[in-house]
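To assess whether ligand presence alters the predicted conformation, the chain was also submitted together with protoporphyrin IX containing FE. Input:
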Amino acid sequence: MVFSEKQESLVKESWEVMKQNVPELSLRLFTLIMENAPEAKNMFSFLQNTDEIPRNNPKVRAHAVKVFKTTCESAIQLHQKGKVVVADTTLKWLGAVHLQKGVMGPHFEVVKDALLRTIKEAMGDKWSEEMNGAWSQAYDLLAIAIQDEMKAEA
Ligand code: HEM
């Protein structure tokens, strides 16, 4: 598996920029997810019984940051170790959480599209196809690893 040093730094450097604007970033990510997969709304405990995505809600922020951060950390490991390794958590636990919440394969595509679009908007002039490709590859490999755990536990 090849994940180059350049790809690793594109992911790392863009996350350094984006993490300074987490409230906007997380709201945008969830808005895009809900636009493309409205049925996903009720899977999130903090979105049940509400018609709009709460602004500055710590839980909305937490999931968005975890998707960004885990993908970023996984990208670093991909380059250094050549495989998906997650920091601060385990793939087994990530698999169990998403299985229990009823997350399905296609949802990972919805979140991927929302993630890439959020990055494109957030990075503006600094965005490039290469940056997009690096995030895309890191996310795909992480999503596959999580789904493998989900299958193993189902
Ligand atoms: C919960 C990460 C993709 C839906 C979580 C948690 C983490 C996480 C770490 C636990 C949050 C906590 O309790 O602290 C990720 C990562 C993803 C990903 C790294 C992709 C690489 C998805 C997708 C969906 C999803 C595709 C479906 C649209 C959920 C839901 C919860 C959850 C519904 C429970 C949230 C709650 O109600 O408290 N995720 N997730 N996740 N995730 Fe994901």
